[in-house]
Amino acid sequence: MFPKNNRLPRTAFRHVFRTGIRIQNPDFSCVAAKTKEPVSRFAVVVSTKVSKLAVDRNRIKRLLREAVRHLLQTILPGYDCIIIAQKNFSEKKEFMIEKNLKALLEKIM
Q1: pLDDT digits (tens, 9 = 90+) for 5-58
Q2: Which of the listed CATH numbers 3.50.50.60, 3.40.50.2020, 3.30.70.660, 3.30.230.10 matches domain 4-108?
Q3: Which of 2, 20, 82, 87 has the lowest tally of Cβ within 10 angstroms?
Q4: What is the rounded distance in angstroms from the CA atom of residue 11 to the CA atom of residue 26?
Q5: How far apart are CA 4 and CA 9, in angstroms?
Q6: Which residues contact 86 (CB under 8 A, 6 or more apart)?
Q7: Cα angle vertex 63, ends 61, 66, to 5°?
Q8: Do 26 and 86 form a contact (C-beta atoms < 8 A)?
Q9: Which SS3 state, helix, strand or coil, does residue 87 take?
């Protein structure tokens, strides 16, 4: 789980989706909006289209949260990001997820 100050509240989702920059790679997409917050905040979304089983969706969320947690030191402050898993996400290895996420976030920030 993200530290409390790095969690994006549900009330900010609409703002991020309306004003954010969208960028994709084959594993996941990211919507990010610039804010005046002193830290970057994140949320992870996994649809039932990715997997019908809640166990699989929760595993994907845990993997993405862990990758973001490892990258928090290198991420610039002042962004709200929503990470959305794509259909072909299952069966990815942890190091590949982190590598792809880092490349995606570098394009946005």
Answers
A1: 899 999 999 999 999 999 998 888 999 999 998 999 999 999 999 889 999 899
A2: 3.30.230.10
A3: 87
A4: 28
A5: 10
A6: 24, 26, 27, 28, 29, 50
A7: 105
A8: yes
A9: helix
